[in-house]
Specification:
Mean pLDDT: 78
Shape: elongated
Strand content: under 5%
Number of domains: 2
Length: 252
């Protein structure tokens, strides 16, 4: 069996296999979905580098328009094995070439096949205080890594909310959500949770265990969607721990 035959059918592996044939509708849709999920990481990176809100938004629009129009995946170097590394390197090249990004923004008219959610921009600006850049602010690459990890987590939580809402258990998820990032076993806190959900102490433990297992599975699947080689999932998981810190490690 060839290497390609062993690869999982994830979004990024589909794009890589398509290579310079992004006229393939499945591969193109996969790339567009990935861009939609993870553009906030690039936006936060540009803001930390001193770009204004409008300039950063225009650059993101131009970058993805250029990426999708030029089928530049085939030009990527070895970093393309991980979507995170590919986007980071590609954006730096794009921004460094002022003529190219100016042309792409004008050519694309600031439009994409998906919209840039202004609420997510507000959240990114608020999360990192990028409107008040101080001399001791963190390195832009650290912002990029942390925001990328946050995108993975946000995506996972959104899927969980949809799943629990579909089961009529939206309140369950909101009540149990704190247990995803904390191992707090305070009896009084657990008692309040059980009372709110109408569960016994034992049933509550089972509910928390199931939620954590589901969260872990979905989060790791989200990581897998951004790598080409399944063997990279382990190192990407470790990277996620380092980017988000011990808080995330507790729930994985």
């Amino acid at each position: 069996m060839t290497l390609a035959g062993r690869l999982p059918t994830t979004r990024w592996s589909l794009v890589i296999q398509a290579g310079d044939r992004l006229t393939d509708p499945v591969a193109r849709q996969s790339l567009e979905e990935l861009c939609q999920m993870y553009w906030p990481a690039l936006y936060g990176y540009l803001r930390r580098r001193g770009r204004s809100r409008q300039d950063a938004e225009d650059l993101i629009q131009g970058f993805f328009t250029d990426l999708l129009e030029r089928d530049s995946i085939a030009e990527a170097d070895s970093s393309r094995g991980r979507f995170r590394a590919f986007l980071y390197a590609s954006l730096d090249r794009f921004v460094a070439n002022a003529h190219r990004h100016d042309h792409a923004i004008k050519r694309g008219g600031g439009t994409l096949t998906f919209s840039i959610d202004q609420n997510r921009i507000d959240q990114t600006d608020s999360r990192y205080g990028v409107d008040q850049i101080a001399a001791d602010d963190e390195d832009p690459t650290v912002t990029f890594d942390r925001q990328w990890a946050q995108c993975l987590i946000d995506q996972t939580l959104q899927e969980l909310r949809q799943e629990y809402a579909g089961q009529g258990k939206a309140d369950w998820l909101e009540t149990l959500m704190p247990t995803l990032i904390s191992n707090d076993s305070d009896p009084k806190s657990r008692e309040q949770m059980a009372k709110r959900l109408g569960l016994s102490a034992t049933a509550l433990k089972v509910a928390i265990h199931r939620l954590r297992a589901c969260y872990r599975t979905r989060l790791l699947n989200a990581v897998a969607q951004t790598v080409d080689d399944p063997g990279d999932c382990g190192s990407e998981r470790q990277w996620l721990f380092e980017a988000m810190g011990k808080k995330t490690r507790k729930s994985l």
